[in-house]
Specification:
Layout: E1 2-8, H1 14-27, E2 35-41, E3 44-50, E4 63-64, E5 70-78, H2 81-90, H3 100-111, E6 121-129, E7 134-139, E8 148-151, E9 157-160, H4 163-168, H5 178-187, E10 200-202, E11 207-211, E12 217-221, H6 238-256, E13 263-266, H7 271-282, E14 289-294, H8 303-313, E15 316-321, H9 324-337, H10 346-357, E16 362-364, H11 369-373, H12 378-394, H13 397-410, H14 413-424, H15 428-435, H16 441-447, H17 450-459, H18 466-472, H19 478-504, E17 509-511, H20 517-524, H21 528-531, H22 539-544, H23 551-554, H24 565-568, H25 574-580, H26 583-586, H27 594-606, H28 613-626
Parallel strand pairs: 13-14, 13-16, 14-15, 16-17
Antiparallel strand pairs: 1-3, 1-9, 2-3, 4-5, 5-6, 6-7, 7-11, 8-9, 8-10, 11-12
Helix pairs in contact: 2-3, 5-17, 6-7, 6-20, 10-19, 12-15, 12-19, 13-14, 14-15, 15-19, 27-28
């Protein structure tokens, strides 16, 4: 795992480029405290800082091909590098290391962009071709590792693993984009390719970027969700499906355990993390360290389940008690680690801190299980709403208007969400597009100043990827459509982005075996009625790991992994929120209506709707971000 950075520019002299890249690498040193390196050639300067995981002694970067043509910087892990290495050696590559970085370099040198389809792993990498004077970069299919970039004035490109690193270069501005603010208030985060800053882009998952010799920048998708198929791997009965799923899960776990440093696991006590740990033990993991967060507040801690799991598997278990007072004390450090505002992530920040302090450099997480196996209410609720939409649309418009006004008057989070569904959605894609909204449209627009509101109205209430996903998913089933939306929006833009930032803040490599291209492509083709049973949440995963996961965990009601924020926000975090929503603090937010923003906090304090906490917190993080002083 690394922090990568670089500048491609014929306008900037090497000394200026090298100084800027050095500042970017220094700003990302938490991502790679073990090593750092730089290389300049022609119009390019590349740099990196390395967290040594595979072949620690020989994976120095930037790595240059033997003929001097290609220079690579790479953030991530190629899990199938041992399989690829002999194939590449047979084609004439003389390996100098046993590192996945050199395997990636060899694969690109021999096959160019076509090598991407061979890779099983998480990655964001960049290659300078000194012969053709071209630059190439790519991001993994599901967006586990980040790649941010910006065009330089007149000509050129600058890139890094974190936005804060780009800003540290002193080559680009830090102007906040009002349109991105509007999108953040809708989606917990700013969806790619936009970022919170004007002019800084987020390369979307499964995309590559190329800069040709004339300086022209182009991007495009190298991976999309598989088209519907009837291949020989499609199971014809549930027994065969469960057997095949177990085989795929074991393969993903084996791949994700590859490392030359200690590997542990997050263990919340839910089905996903318990199945993950069970599969790790089954694959041969010994003296496995597991980590969980516990809380004193009833209804939030999963301590009993995580202790049952660790007793079953015999792991060396570490529990960390998180209190509201501790979060309040740590907030300045936590929020400073976010390079964009996010409504989530603090749980992962503490879990990563606990794992790193517990002696591991790599930790596996059960993230992705809900998206693959239908663990969210959206898999049940959206098809029901889809069936009702034709009836709703057939009602006289005057009656619909009256009913919507009655819904809006209820003010509850659920009623506001249903109002948005009935007001805007016409089909399943539009329902799925609205599913992860934080602020309902009416409330979101009321928070924005006239200029920002105009941009938000122009972009509309739907997710910016609506048309792209609707086109990509032609022929997909309702289950696949909902799964794709959960995978490609909330998981990618919130969960995976926050996991990267929060784990790397503690120099921890976080791996997500359920977010695996090989597993996803196999599972995508299987019949929906094998993958999802609305009567038994995540039945497929439970049945595939029934010999590993205790029955009490397989059969328990799903409990989301979240901190007791609804309680803390009125106690330990109240001072922070009172200050955040003060007039002086809101004055720094030129794109927010101060009175409307302050009202959100006041309404939460006077209301018993605990579901509204996420809106308040999402807005608070944005306001705090706007008040951040430049470093």
């Amino acid at each position: 795992m690394c922090g990568i950075a670089g500048i491609i520019s014929p306008r900037l002299d090497p000394a200026t480029r090298e100084a800027a890249v050095a500042r970017m690498v220094q700003r990302q040193q938490h991502r790679g405290p073990d090593d750092r390196g730089f290389h300049s050639d022609g119009d390019a300067t590349l740099g990196m800082c390395r967290l040594a995981i595979i072949d620690p002694a020989h994976g120095h970067q930037p790595m240059i091909s033997p003929d001097g043509r290609f220079t690579l910087v790479f953030n991530g892990a190629i899990y199938n590098y041992r399989e690829l290495q002999p194939r590449l050696a047979a084609r004439g590559w003389n390996f100098r290391t046993n590192c996945d970085t050199e395997v990636l370099l060899a694969a690109y040198a021999l096959d160019g962009a076509e090598c991407l389809k061979q890779l099983r792993g998480m990655f964001a990498f960049a290659v300078w071709d000194s012969r053709e004077r071209t630059f190439f970069a790519a991001r993994d299919s599901l967006g586990i590792k980040p790649f941010y970039y910006a065009r330089l004035p007149e000509s050129g490109l600058i890139f890094a693993s974190e936005i804060n690193a780009l800003l540290a270069s002193k080559q680009i501005s830090r102007d906040i984009d009002p349109a991105a603010v509007g999108e953040y208030l809708a989606w917990f985060s700013v969806p790619a390719p936009r970022t919170i800053y004007r002019g800084i882009a987020n390369l979307p998952p499964g995309h590559s970027l190329r800069v040709d010799a004339a300086g022209r920048i182009t991007t495009g998708a190298w991976w999309q969700l598989p088209a519907p198929t009837r291949s020989a791997e499609v199971a014809t009965n549930y027994h065969d499906f469960v057997h095949g799923l177990r085989h795929q899960l074991e393969g993903s776990i084996r791949a994700h355990r590859v490392a030359d440093v200690p590997v542990g696991a997050f263990l919340s006590g839910g089905l996903d993390s318990t199945a993950l740990v069970g599969l790790m033990i089954k694959s041969g993991a010994t003296k496995l360290k597991t980590f969980s967060l516990i809380f004193g507040e009833s209804g939030y801690s999963e301590q009993a389940s995580s202790r049952l799991a660790t007793k079953t598997f015999g792991t060396e278990h570490h529990e960390e008690l998180i209190t509201g007072s501790r979060v309040a004390a740590d907030l300045p450090r936590i929020l400073a680690s976010f390079d964009q505002p996010t409504g989530d992530g603090i749980n992962t920040w503490y879990a990563s801190q606990t794992a790193r302090a517990g002696g591991v450099t790599v930790a596996l997480s059960g993230l992705g299980g809900d998206e693959l196996f239908g663990g969210y209410p959206s898999f049940r609720d959206l098809p029901r709403l889809q069936r009702l939409l034709p009836l709703w649309r057939s009602l006289p418009s005057s009656l619909r208007t009256t009913l919507l006004r009655q819904l809006q008057a209820r003010q509850s989070t659920r009623a506001q969400k249903l109002t948005d569904f009935l007001t805007h959605a016409r089909d399943l894609h539009e329902l799925a597009s609205l599913q992860r909204r934080v602020f309902p449209e009416r409330a979101r627009l009321s928070l924005l100043t006239p200029d920002a509101r105009t941009q938000a109205e122009r972009l509309g209430p739907f997710h910016p990827k609506l048309e792209d996903f609707a086109t990509e998913l032609i022929g997909a089933s309702p289950f696949q459509i909902i799964s794709a939306w959960e995978l490609r929006t909330y998981m990618t833009d919130v969960l995976l982005r926050d996991s990267d930032i929060c784990s790397m803040a503690h120099s921890l490599e976080l791996r997500v075996p359920f977010v695996d291209r090989v597993l996803l492509e196999w599972l995508w083709a299987q019949p929906d009625y094998f993958k999802y049973d609305p009567r038994i949440i995540k039945r497929a995963l439970a049945d595939a790991t029934a010999d590993l996961v205790p029955a009490a965990i397989r059969q328990r009601r799903k409990q989301g992994f979240s901190l007791p924020f609804p309680l803390w926000m009125k106690t330990d975090l109240r001072a922070f929120l009172d200050e955040t929503f003060s007039a002086s603090s809101l004055a720094a937010c030129q794109w927010l209506e101060p009175a409307a923003a302050a009202q959100v906090w006041q309404d939460f304090n006077s209301s018993g709707d605990t579901r509204a906490w996420s809106r308040v917190w999402t807005l608070a993080v944005l306001i705090d971000f706007a008040n951040r002083k430049p470093e």
